[in-house]
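Batch job 17 of 40 flagged for manual review because the log was empty.
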Amino acid sequence: MSIYDYKVTGIDGEEILLEKYKGKVLIIANTASKCGFTPQYTDLEKLYEKYKEEGFEILGFPCNQFAEQEPGSNKEVKNFCQLNYGVSFPLFEKIEVRGASAHPLFKYLSEKSPFKGLDLNHPSGKILNSFLEEKFPEYLIGNSIKWNFTKFLIDREGNVVERFEPTTEPLDMISEIEKLL
């Protein structure tokens, strides 16, 4: 099984086989419009613009599971991302990314690239960890997605190469992305 075996639904309702992205380097991320990490859209778009001609794609999956930080409809999410961040990379319909109703793609990604902990040397890592310990301690158990803007790096063969937690800024992924391009 690889990521190419999964079907997803685009933000406008079209069914898409991830096989469409075979041969490309991918970042797959769960996103939200009302999160402290939402400004990461800016740098994700910068990465997309810089590397898309080299076979790089970013796939954004809005999710409302984390403190209801993605409350809008798919249309509202798409408009928000385009108007506020100029997002031109592919967005998909809102899904769940953790728990029993998690989309199979995110169950697969979490299994293939387990949670290694948050960077507690980074200020936002400390803040997120403390917040989760206080409000959602169960989120810190296991390999599931911990919060919005968890990012998975996929190579051209569809292998999950790396997992970047929300506290990793998109531009800090450049060296890993470039190795695969």
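Reviewer: the log was empty due to a logging misconfiguration, but the result itself is present. Strands lie at 7-9, 15-17, 25-31, 56-62, 151-154, 160-164. Unflagging and moving on to job 18.
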